[in-house]
Amino acid sequence: MDGVDELQALLDCLPIAIGISTDSRCENIRMNRSFANLLGLLSDPNSAKPDASDRTPSDIKMYRNGRELAPDELPMQLAARKGVEIRDFEEEIIWTDGTTFHLLGYAAPLRDKHGAVSGSVGAFVDITERKQAEEKLKTSLQEKETLLKELHHRVKNDMQVISSLLQLQANCIKDEKVREMFRECRERIHSMALVHEKLYQSKDLSRIDFTEYLNSLLPMLFRSYGTPSSSIKLESDLEQVSLSMNLATPLGLVLNELISNSLKHAFPDGRSGVVRVSLHTNPQSQLALTVSDDGIGLGKDFNLENTSTLGWKIVNILASQIGGTLNFQGNHGTPSS
Ligand SMILES: Nc1ncnc2c1ncn2[C@@H]1O[C@H](COP(=O)(O)OP(=O)(O)O)[C@@H](O)[C@H]1O
Ligand SMILES: [Mg+2]
Fold it and tell me: Are 102 and 126 in contact (CB under 8 A)?
């Protein structure tokens, strides 16, 4: 056995397709067995496919990103024509019977002693299985995303049903105070349902654009309190932030309480004024949400930690649940963050 035979034996047992061409236009390619197999030029004794012995390379079409490649655009020919190395060249081989392989091609030019291109060598890895697995994964991910979207949609719809049921129940109640309690409950449900609505509309199904959420929530609250826009103005200064559902829902509820309080309590007897909402990330990367109004204020004795009314309780509980701190500052008007 001479060196050439050993080399041929070695190349033939490699699972990678290897080709060598010693003419500068790369018209004739010597290929190992894997290469011939890939082109369907060898009949595989284990394959149920028809005998491939009468197939020629011209029966095979090569594609890249859906476009058929001309013979001089293939990796080995390209390496010879341009005198450069080709790496990670993804292409598809489609046999006449439709059998398709995905390949990753590598090629390098061969040069004579004067440096002129005299041919090229190429290696091709069959990545068909990897591609199929990727495709499967993509499809399954898409299915899961659709399912998740559907779920958020349903949760939102169910919350709307709950809200409507509360409304029907409230219609039977004479006591104005109790009716008001029902209304506040419905608003809390709406602010939660809005998170689900934004989630199923969002590209990233695990986070929502909180700024967009607030831009829907705030006008919704103003409308719900029938606030005349001429007397109570809303000023918002919102930084673009996206939040996970775990943060967005409690923060939405906190905001719901603070804004509804401003609208309900700060401007009695037709007073006019401004409600300000700001959302910013501070230098310590903490999110600061501030709500303030220039209404009658909470009075000197107001103590955020010692309040027993439901609205403030909700604010306290939710703030500690998300690891937030509550700050209250007041002279006149009601700022809290
Ligand atoms: N922005 C505000 N301006 C003036 N008073 C407020 C404001 N927010 C809350 N308050 C006072 O604090 C009280 C408690 O608020 P809260 O716990 O939300 O209960 P509720 O809104 O159901 O009365 C209110 O009844 C009101 O007197
Ligand atoms: Mg309240």
Answer: yes
Domain, as residue range, for 164: 128-205
pTM across the whole model:
0.72
Q: Which of 153, 182, 205 is the last residue of a domain?
A: 205
**Do 150 and 248 reside in the same domain of the chain?**
no
Atom of ligand 1 nearest to the CA of 314: 17
Is a pLDDT exceeding 60 seen at residue 1?
no
Which of 92, 108, 126 finishes a domain?
126
| The total number of structural domains that make up the chain | 3
Q: How many CB atoms lie within 10 A of CB 144?
A: 11
Residue closest by Cα to atom 18 of ligand 1: 311
Is residue 298 over pLDDT 90? no
Per-residue pLDDT band at 188 (split at 50, 70, 90) = very high
Instruction: Give the confidence band of 328 by pLDDT, cuts at 50, 70, 90.
Output: confident
> Is the CB of residue 333 below 6 angstroms from any atom belonging to ligand 1?
no
Query: Whose alpha carbon is nearest atom 11 of ligand 1?
Result: 298
Give, using CA atoms, the residue closest to atom 8 of ligand 1: 261
Ligand 1 atom nearest the C-alpha of 260 is 21
195 CB within 6 A, ligand 1: no
Same domain, yes or no, for 199 and 224? Answer: no
Average pLDDT of the segment spanning 147-154: 93
Question: Mean pLDDT throughout 138-159?
Answer: 93
13 and 116 belong to one structural domain: yes
Q: Are residues 337 and 250 in the same domain?
A: yes
Confidence of residue 5 (pLDDT cuts 50, 70, 90): confident
Name which residue sits closest to atom 17 of ligand 1, judged by CA.
Answer: 311
d(CA 79, CA 161): 66
Q: State the sign of the Cα–Cα–Cα–Cα dihedral 170, 175, 180, 182.
A: negative
Helix pair angle (245-261, 310-321), 10° resolution = 150
